[in-house]
Amino acid sequence: MILSVRGHARGATLVAAFSLVAMLSGSAEARSHGHSRAPRIEEAHVPPGMRVSVQPINGDAGPAVRAQIARLLRGRGCRVVTTIPRVEGTGQYLEMAKDHRVAAFVSADLEEGAHSNRVTFLVWDGATGNVLGRWSASGAPKNLAKAIAKGFWKSLGARVSGAQAPASEELGEAPPMYVNAGEPLP
User: Fold this and answer.
1) Does the pLDDT at position 119 exceed 50?
2) How many domains is the chain built from?
3) In terms of DSSP bridges, do strands 51-54 and 104-112 run parallel, antiparallel, or are they unpaired?
4) Are 69 and 108 in contact (CB under 8 A)?
5) Max Cα distance, the chain (Å)
6) Which of 77, 69, 74 is nearest to 46 (CA)?
7) What letter does residue 110 receive in the DSSP assignment?
8) Is residue 83 part of a domain?
9) Residue 14, pLDDT above cutoff 50
10) Is 136 in contact with 121 (CB distance < 8 Å)?
């Protein structure tokens, strides 16, 4: 009789061990759904109404690339300014940002080839005039727009959202001033 109890106890221990292993592997599978994923990167958000200038781009495909960047930025909530002309020197960005109340400038250099185009984007900060980010994309002329749409915001979105407009030099309206002149004269 004692032998049969030991046999049952040993069997119960094995069943419990296998159940524990199955339960642990099932919970891991339930967590990962059978495949692993890369951690999600927090997407950049711009303050509503942030003014961003998209500078003119030289080249045959330049106007189309500029229009695409303007659409991408508008889709993210930026107020896009396209009336500011292209600047020649980098020292002009700070002054232009003050004049037009622009938080960021997006400029690009387009290199067009027979079989491949390459565009390099720079994001300039309006408050300091410094370069916040740089990103390049290349591809066949008909595939360049797709490469830009896929990678521009992933690569430069946080830089654009981190840009600051220069401090305003205009003073707001002063609050009314009350003066206690004392008691009236007799």
Assistant:
1) yes
2) 1
3) parallel
4) yes
5) 121
6) 77
7) E
8) yes
9) no
10) yes
